[in-house]
Amino acid sequence: MNFTEIATNRQSCRKYDASKVVEAEKVQAILQAARLAPSACNGQPYRLTVCTGESAKAVAKATMGMGMNRFAKDAPVLIVLSEEPYVKTAAAGSKLKKNDYRSMDIGIVAAYLTAEATAQGLGTCILGWFDDAAVRKICDLDAPVRLVITLGYAAADDPLREKKRKRLEDLVQYRE
Ligand SMILES: Cc1cc2nc3c(=O)[nH]c(=O)nc-3n(C[C@H](O)[C@H](O)[C@H](O)COP(=O)(O)O)c2cc1C
User: Residue with the nearest Cα to atom 27 of ligand 1?
Assistant: First the structure.
């Protein structure tokens, strides 16, 4: 798949085939791609915690508050993205320029991760709705959790949806 094909095929998977195990080598390929993500001052201010088995179930439950994200319970793997401290240069840049580079860095790593998962034929959903304290406890983290990503094979009856996006004219402006 070229990049446009990956971008077209990646969608938030909200129906997993719980009976299909995700191969360890596919998880490794996804983590290796995530490792290549760019970040402010190359600081890589994040940690990825790969949850399977009982911890996947527990993290999934922590994303399901108020009836949200029910599909997460069927994902065999959940990857928790937590925040790590800035490197000194990125901290200084962020303060001087009043810009939150860490959130951007975490967003980019999530994009790399989900893109490679698509290339590997797997479904993902990026989750921003979760109980931070609960996920931290399960993963033994003392840093804020920023995103949780569900990973697994999409159910056979989960079709590729048409993307709903702003029109390019509403998204882009040009200046000469
Ligand atoms: C930062 C972030 C947080 C999100 N949180 C959730 C979530 O908690 N639950 C959910 O079902 N989808 C969540 N999504 C998925 C978005 O709803 C989805 O990406 C968007 O509607 C576009 O659809 P697509 O991913 O299928 O192209 C999140 C996406 C992002 C980038």
Answer: 11
Query: Between 3.30.420.40, 3.10.450.350, 3.40.190.10, 3.40.109.10, what CATH number should domain 3-155 receive?
Result: 3.40.109.10
**SS3 at position 154:** strand
- This model's pTM is above 0.70: yes
Contact yes or no for 101/37 (Cβ under 8 A): no
* pLDDT tens per residue across span 85-96: 999 999 999 999
Instruction: Compute, in angstroms, the gap from residue 128 CA to the centroid of ligand 1.
Output: 8
Helix 24-35, helix 101-119: angle, nearest 10: 140
